[in-house]
Amino acid sequence: MQAPEKPATAQDFLGFDPTNPPDPNQIDACVHCGFCLATCPSYRVIGKENDSPRGRIYLMDGINTGEVEFTDTSIQHFDSCLGCLACVTTCPSGVQYDQLIEATRAQVTRNADRPLMERLLRQGIFNIFPYPDRLRLLLRPVSLYQKFGLQKWVRSTGLLGKISPQLAAMEGMLTEIPDKAWRDTLPEIIPAQGEPRYRVGMLLGCVQRLFNPDVNEATVRVLTANGCEVAIPPSQGCCGALSHHQGQEAQAEDLARQTIDSFAAANVDYVLINASGCGHTLKEYGHILKDDEQYRDRAKAFSAKVKDVQEFLAEVGLTTPLSPLQDAPLTMVYQDACHMLHGQKISVQPRQLLKQIPGVKLREPIDAALCCGSAGVYNILQPEVAHELGQQKANNLTNTGAQVIASANIGCYVQISKHLEMQGKAVPVLHPMQLLDMAIQGQQLLPPAN
Ligand code: SF4
Ligand code: SF4
User: Fold this and answer.
1) Mutate to test the pocket of ligand 2, among 26, 36, 42 (most ligand atoms within 8 A of CB)
2) How far is ligand 2, taken at its centre, from the CA of residue 371, in Å?
3) For residues 227 and 167, what is the distance between their CA atoms, to the nearest angstrom?
4) Does Chaperone count among this protein's keywords (predicted)?
């Protein structure tokens, strides 16, 4: 009897499969100068050439030419990349490492033969996280697990870490589930206060709307107070950032099409987003859907309207007065999220906005451009490296003496808050929109000292 035909895998080719391998022209643009090594967080922690941008580019080249096998070992080096894009900013030769790793991750997704536990974990993440309704269903048993003290017991035994360090890392991210997590509270249209200047669409994000819904509410209040009518199409879901950054291309394309459709009838001047990872992906829709004849042009037009909310507000200007957040001067540090700084080149605008709050003294941390280790689901999938980076980031931020940390990305917020707690530091982490909102409402940040 003839053996059933095995589907072609990377092992059969001993290299990448023929679907969109990393572009050899981009690979050739690398002159191996090594400037990028100094800014690469995975290289900083692991210390091996193969876990640096240059090393990974060598690997891609070797696999493309058949000199290096596409094995579990090379896949580990691709997995260890945080996708933070710091190397893209640093590279003097303009190597588009983001496109190289994107193509490589899609190859890994199609061809890697991962251990069962990891496969299940990844499937769970990609089948639940980007779908708020499914995530809400999962949160029901999770809230019981927290309510009945099981969480404390599980954490004290270290049981999960023995089964899977990734599962333990995911559990370690679990913050208390807010009451507002169970349903979306914002209406479809929120009118501007006073004379409307713009009509803007807003994306709620899939994880943020559940785990930190206050950020979306604060963003709406800041926008409406500054003359924006806000439209929130209820059919919107995940923007596809998580899938796109992890090489789940088919899923990312579906979610991108869905997002474009949700905003099709909203008739807005801009589509605004307050999470950096999502903002970067929304601006990439033209590239993500480049092979889709039906959506290609719509995707480009959609991306052209996308702005990070801080980028937008700095551009159009705040029109409403701001009050101090405390009587004494307030020392604050702004944490640059990678997809904001390296992905969207936005660093000045958030600082400009925060400095407009009376009394704010903005400090700069060392290694401001280094990833905090969150990187989407990296802190779940690669917990050791993420832990080291989280510890460094929490230290660097608090070493500035800041009384409050401003962070414009849900992933960074969770990661930094967790590491501050581990270090026993009670410094609040708030989104710049929350800080501006408080300044507009005349609220105090910290209780007055006795
Ligand atoms: S990616 Fe850029 S910075 Fe890094 S080694 Fe290549 S040319 Fe140099
Ligand atoms: S994306 Fe970040 S982690 Fe990956 S190679 Fe570049 S600098 Fe290193």
Assistant:
1) 42
2) 9
3) 45
4) no
Give the integer Cα–Cα distance in Å for 407 and 334: 6
Question: CA angle at residue 408 from 407 to 414, to 5 degrees?
Answer: 65
What is the percent of the chain where pLDDT is above 70?
96
Average pLDDT on 273-280 reads: 94
> Which protein residue's CA is at the shortest distance from atom 6 of ligand 2?
87
Which residue, chain included where needed, has tokens 């950054």? 245
Residue 57 three-state SS: helix
Does 449 have pLDDT greater than 70? no
Residue-range domains of the chain with CATH: 10-111 (1.10.1060.10), 116-176 (no CATH), 182-316 (1.20.1050), 330-441 (3.40.50)
Would you state the pLDDT for residue 246? Answer: 85
**Closest to 428 in 3D by CA, of 276, 443, 311:** 443
Is the entire prediction scored with pTM above 0.85?
Answer: yes
Pick the residue whose CA is nearest to atom 2 on ligand 2: 84
Taking residue 169's Cβ as centre, other Cβ atoms within 10 Å add up to: 22
